[in-house]
Amino acid sequence: MGDRHAKDQLFDAFAEVAKALGNGRRAELIDVLAQGERHVDELSAEIGQSVANTSFHLRVLASAGLVTTRRDGTRIYYRLASARVVDAWTALRDVAASHHEQIDELAAAYLGDRTHLEQIGRAELAERIAAGDVVVVDVRPAVEHAAGHIVGARSIPIDELAANVKDLPPDVEVVAYCRGPYCVFADDAVRLLRRRRRAARRLEDGFPEWQRAQLPIETSAVS
Amino acid sequence: MGDRHAKDQLFDAFAEVAKALGNGRRAELIDVLAQGERHVDELSAEIGQSVANTSFHLRVLASAGLVTTRRDGTRIYYRLASARVVDAWTALRDVAASHHEQIDELAAAYLGDRTHLEQIGRAELAERIAAGDVVVVDVRPAVEHAAGHIVGARSIPIDELAANVKDLPPDVEVVAYCRGPYCVFADDAVRLLRRRRRAARRLEDGFPEWQRAQLPIETSAVS
DNA sequence: CCACTCCTCAAGTAACATCTTGAATATAGA
DNA sequence: TCTATATTCAAGATGTTACTTGAGGAGTGG
């Protein structure tokens, strides 16, 4: 029991999983897949890579056990192997955010200035939803809303928000949410709504964190 | 807000942290450092690598923000940057264990057959400690016990256990613990004690998990 | 069966990672 | 200042990773 070689092999196997997350494009894939299953074509557009390269990265994730597949006709859908994968991804992301100094700058470069962006926590939002005095808007792509969303949330993808502001009930605060704390959609939504004189905040994180916290969700059974 | 290049850079930065954990030797370093700070020389012996290579790996971990250093005379001590690093490491390890089929075999090759090895959970052990009807033995190296241990635990490094069995109070169950679920010391301790007809179990995980669960610990202030 | 779509695979190139060896640096103590 | 100890740095051999391009396989619908 306990020889060097066997220990090295065991820890090499643990490291293989970390290595699978150790590439920016694969991290983006995990972040998108945390919203629900998607097929290769969509994923390649999401991460801005060729289909071949996306397929390669997905295979790396699959052989590390992080994602699984199902076929539906000519399409192959990828999904995360389990909720644990979300746990590991968010834990890694949080470590990076708290200890890697560059992250703040890079996040600011991607998300823009957040100092005037009002946020709302999960617990408070859950209360406000129960009280019924808030409109929750899911600004992710429609397919992600369909795969699962915060209870009662209305799907208005960010591209369609400008055209739909007038249909939102007046005099009620709007809360926008999207994929997570480093997703730009909800930020853009809040900025747009504020320009139109609507009271609006963003959920501080996103759908995967809400789901992980066991807060109420629902799924559009539109298949 | 939200251009491709900025998003790629942000996720590359997240991935850099995963990449730092994406090497078996660095994973072993994190696993050891989760027990408390150590200097380079000790760490190089722990992971079975040259001092130069260990120093190189530690620098990789440091530039990912996972570890920090302090100098004491000619020695440089490394420690984890925060408890979040333990969270990320355990989350990754658990994902690997649940989805990477090889892990079971590799763990069995390193740890040996565990089917006859009785374990005890954290909650039960905490109760038994409070009730006072158990002897808790910390079989990690003495320096790790000194850096922090389960409340009331006695330090008997695994190499010294055979010589000290006779000093353990008779007719009381012994619980051995070490670095975590993939640490071999407590397994070896339980096997040794059972051969000597002592009632013995191992804690199902180890000190870092106990600490993380906010269960009572103490530190030998022997500096 | 054929053409089409979706995805995977293979080959190739440039960049990066791991480990070894030996030299350089920093501190402590004489 | 000199020497010893602990650690880091630099150079270099070898393997691995990321992406591109173009070919191949699997399912669908005419």
The class by helix and strand makeup of chain A works out as alpha/beta
Q: From the structure provided, what is the oligomeric state, counting identical versus distinct chains? A: homodimer
Instruction: Write down how many β-strands of chain A occur, each being a DSSP E stretch of 2 or more residues.
Output: 10
Spell out the helices and strands of chain A N to C. Answer: HHEHHEEHHEHEHEEHEHEHE
DSSP helix fraction of chain A: 40-55%
**Neighbour order of strands in the largest sheet of chain A:** 4-9-8-5-7
Description:
- Two copies of one chain form a homodimer.
- The first copy, chain A, is α/β, with parallel strands linked by helices and 223 residues long.
- Chain A has eleven helices and ten strands.
- Chain A has helices at residues 4-21, 24-33, 40-47, 51-63, 83-99, 102-111, 122-131, 142-147, 158-164, 185-195, 207-212, and strands at 38-39, 67-72, 75-80, 119-120, 134-138, 149-150, 154-155, 173-178, 200-206, 217-218.
- In chain A, the strands form three sheets. A five-stranded parallel sheet of chain A has the order 4-9-8-5-7, sandwiched between helices. Chain A has a three-stranded antiparallel sheet with strand order 1-3-2.
- In chain A, strand 2 (67-72) and strand 3 form a beta hairpin.
- At the A-B interface, helix 1, helix 2, helix 5 and helix 6 of A face helix 1, helix 2, helix 5 and helix 6 of B.
- Chain A binds a DNA duplex (30 and 30 nucleotides) through residues 23, 25, 39-41, 49-57, 59-60, 71, 73-76.
